[in-house]
Amino acid sequence: LEVDEKIDSIDQSILSFNFPVVEGAAFNSYAEQHNPTCLPDTRVELLQRVSDWAHDPHAKAIFWLNGMAGTGKSTVSRTIAQSLASTSHLGASFFFKRGEGDRGRAARFFTTIAAQLTVMQPAIAVHIKNAIKADSDIGSKGLREQFNKLILQPLSAGSLKNENPRVIVLVIDALDECELEEDIKLIIRLLSRVKNVGLRVFVTSRPELPIRLSFSDIRGEFQHVILHEMPEPVIWHDLSVFITHNLREISVNYNKTVQEYRQLHKDWPGQSTIDTLVKMAIPLFIFAATVCRFLADRKCGNPDDRLRKVLEYDTKSQESKLDATYLPVLDQQVAGLSTRERNEVLQDFRYIVGSIVLLASPLSVSSLAELLGISRDVIDTRLDMLHSVLSIPPSAESPVRLLHLSFRDFLVDPEKREKREQCPWWINQTEAHGKIMDNCLRVMTEFLRQDMCNLRLLKMEDSIIDCQKAASYIPAPVQYACLNWVFHLQGAKDQAENHTEIFQFLEQHFLHWIEALSLIRKAPESIKIIRTLQALIPMKGHKALSEFLDDALRLIQSHLHIISNAPLQIYSSILIFAPRKSIIKKLFKRKIPSWVSLEPNVESGWSQCIQTFEGHNSPVQYMAFSHNSSIIASASNDDVWRTDTGECIWEHEFYGYDKTVNCLAFSRDSSLIAASRGRTVQLWRTNTGECVHEISIANDVFYVTVAFLQDMLVVASTTVDGVIGLWETKTGDCIRILTGHKDIVRAVAFSHNSSLVASASRDKTIRLWCAHKGDCIREFKGPYEEVTSIAFSHTSSLIASASGDKIIRLWHTSSGECIQMFKCHDGHIGTVAISHDSSLVASLSYDSTVRIWRADTGDCCVHECYVAKVNGFHITSMSLTSDGLHLVTNVGTLTTAEGEYNFCADGYGFSNDCSWITWNGENILWLPEEYRPESHTAAISNSTVAAYCTSGRVWSMRLLAYPH
User: Fold this and answer.
1) 434 burial level (CB within 10 Å; 0-12, 13-18, 19+)
2) What residue spans of 192-320 are helical by DSSP H?
3) CA angle 522-525-527, nearest 5°?
4) pLDDT tens-digit map of 551-571
5) Exposed (0-12), middle (13-18) or buried (19+): which is 699, by Cβ within 10 Å?
């Protein structure tokens, strides 16, 4: 009883943290309850082999069962999970299923596994609970962090307290049906690390290339069985047992319900017929299962008549195995119909079933009827004879699902396009996707409106209701349409005639659509959806739509946080503080509340800051771009981000005395990242965050920086007497000593190809070294103060330096000549960078400004960029992207377009943190961070609010009485 109470307590704590789990993913879930397990006397050798592996303490960490579609992998998985559960050796199970929402994605994979572990393995439940308590937002973190905190660390803690820990097994089925290849690879790599904590992993999948490659990367950590290559006598025996058992059951059930003269013979259908069916099936168990379901379906008629129809499709070619599986079921629907009736059935089938097989996630019959704009009766009639290929629940509110993915493969097979005579059931994916997209737009147009969940009435201008309440306001087909209309546009090959229709929809309902996504907790998806739209619609194809999407993306990226947490601010704050030239502001200006009688003065256009990466809890000390500019690494603890969506890929937390990161560097292929902190250098994989190497440098080192020399990671260290050491990290050996400086070296930089090293010293000189030989190639003299920062151009032909005299100098590396000097900053210069094409030089000063200069003329083309204290953090590092269009800093990203840019703060009754204008203490209007005053620099007089910004600007706005 005490154990049960503890488990209940843990379950409740998980629920209280809103812990995200995937319903229907476990082997014994409601969604899986009617799916079969292996019959007695089938798969005997295979099941014994898996059992031996699971109970062998010295076995490999992973057992990989692969097999082509329809060979029975999922049935084996369910059998193994059931067997392990009966002996308390099952840790958790996850059955992936493409097209089933989160069951087809990895985002909640480890959280679902962890939730099951708390129930199945109480000994480690408390450790998982503690992990959730320590980080209640763990469910939204990257897969690596979820794995470490929810799986690896709790299992390690549990095994430390148990001298003889019991081996527990995870069962993961159909890994190939996980959507993203990157996630599949990462899951395999992470799971290969579980052996030392008493965990085993049983995995099934099709033999897809990404999975085969991923397993080859962990060679020696798994054992492997190919299901469709089992000896044919074994497969023959198992299929024969399966078919005999099911046909006997069909015969008994049929004979119970008909008169004696109609009953099947007691030996029906005879051994020779069973042998023929086995021959037709080998090696596909899905053939046998589908045929048996077809024969058992009383709506299809007499089992013997149906069986004769099946035998007419006898074939030996593997290509037509699926034809023999599914054509008997489908052809039954048009048997005996006139040409007109036949065409009507085919048309309905393509529209209804074509939609079912192409949906991004399954819908119920009632939701499908609303989405497709037809009656439930029409759908029910068409599905009545398809129970052998579709899972059709008795409730109209439960989703209709494919019984097997091969049915979809069969229907959309492009080779059947030219064989419509033999297979009239072929579905044209492009046309079907186009119809679904049209229906999505129709459903959204009919339903979407402002404040669709009545938040204003609930006095929730500054917050959001929970998902369950939102679902009661926003019907399932509307939620589906909001999330997937662009997915279907993509599938429809983006016909040009759709552009006008899409533009009209966005002009009317863009804000409503964003509000709906926020209410169902999917606001970040809007960025991906708009980027997909931008890729589909070329600028020349529909200029107005293209410009609208550009503006929409900037608006969402700038305000994603408040959109996600207070959706009604879309119609007030976000419109009020959008730039004057914003297309969306102009289009939806009428939505601004009437109580705002005079708007504040805002910027004319969008600023150069295009994206901010939020998530650090302490100042960001350093950042770096990967060579293809697709990944940014930032150092506070350590985070790695995608530049397209702003998503944090993985996070690493440093522990110990010195957490400060001095330098970050990517390998040439962006697969590795190195970081130095204190006298330690660590090397990680960018896709998993796994630390693969660590090196400690000598105690007398003053400064450490890192770079990749070809495929070798090289560390440069400096001592107080000006000596520079180059270290090879694999061995930890010092491979070069560079001597010549007479004082402390303040900065070290590697050239782009890592063949040159530049060093800047307090002795007021810059030296250029050969990284391979250690020779000093050249000494640059000229600064009259110590040099504080240096940077190479991409071609290594130029070096930029910043010195204590507040001057930036540009040097030729070949001659040592100073070819340009830039002087404009009022404060000391902290960092310099050169663009990829060497045309621009960027400088960061402690006077809170960033400037960008033309290298050829010395002109300052972007100046007075007051960004040094955004989010309360100072800019401490920066770099130019390879195209020269963006300057990435540790607090944000700026464009390098000509002109002046100022981050400014603005702000009305204010909340304590000045982030909201309040009415009678109630938050009503959110202020973007750059518009917030400090508490002592704002004033309110009657209906006028004025605020003083740290940049020196003042803004004001006039508000009427708030209509509550």
Assistant:
1) buried
2) 209-217, 232-257, 271-281, 285-296, 303-311
3) 135
4) 999 999 888 888 988 899 999
5) exposed
- What is d(CA 604, CA 580) in angstroms, rounded to the nearest whole number? 5
d(CA 736, CA 889): 32
Alpha carbon distance 859, 824 (integer Å): 10
Question: What b/e sequence results for 519-548 when a residue is b if at least 16 CB atoms lie within 10 Å of its CB, and e otherwise?
Answer: bbebbbbbbebbeebbebbeeeebeebbeb
Lowest mean pLDDT, pick from 587-591, 596-600, 704-708, 790-794: 704-708
* 224-263 confidence digits (pLDDT tens): 999 888 898 999 999 999 999 999 999 999 999 889 888 8
Beta bridge partners of 833: 842
Strands (E), 274-407: 390-391, 401-402
C-alpha to C-alpha distance for 291 and 278, rounded to whole angstroms: 11
pLDDT digits (tens, 9 = 90+) for 600-634: 888 888 876 665 554 444 555 455 655 555 556 55
CA neighbor of 664 nearest in space, from 691, 650, 679, 683: 683
Please report the domains of the chain, with CATH numbers, ordered by start residue: 2-229 (3.40.50.300), 231-314 (no CATH), 330-427 (1.10.10), 429-592 (1.25.40), 596-603+904-964 (no CATH)
d(CA 483, CA 473): 16
Q: Which residues contact 569 (CB under 8 A, 6 or more apart)?
A: 461, 462, 559, 562, 563, 925, 926
> What distances in angstroms separate CA 456 from CA 354, 460, 461, 790, one per listed residue?
41, 6, 6, 55
What is d(CA 712, CA 733) in angstroms, rounded to the nearest whole number?
13
Tell how far CA 837 is from the center of its chain: 33
Q: What is the pTM of this model?
A: 0.63
User: Exposed/middle/buried for 78, CB within 10 Å: 0-12, 13-18, 19+?
Assistant: buried
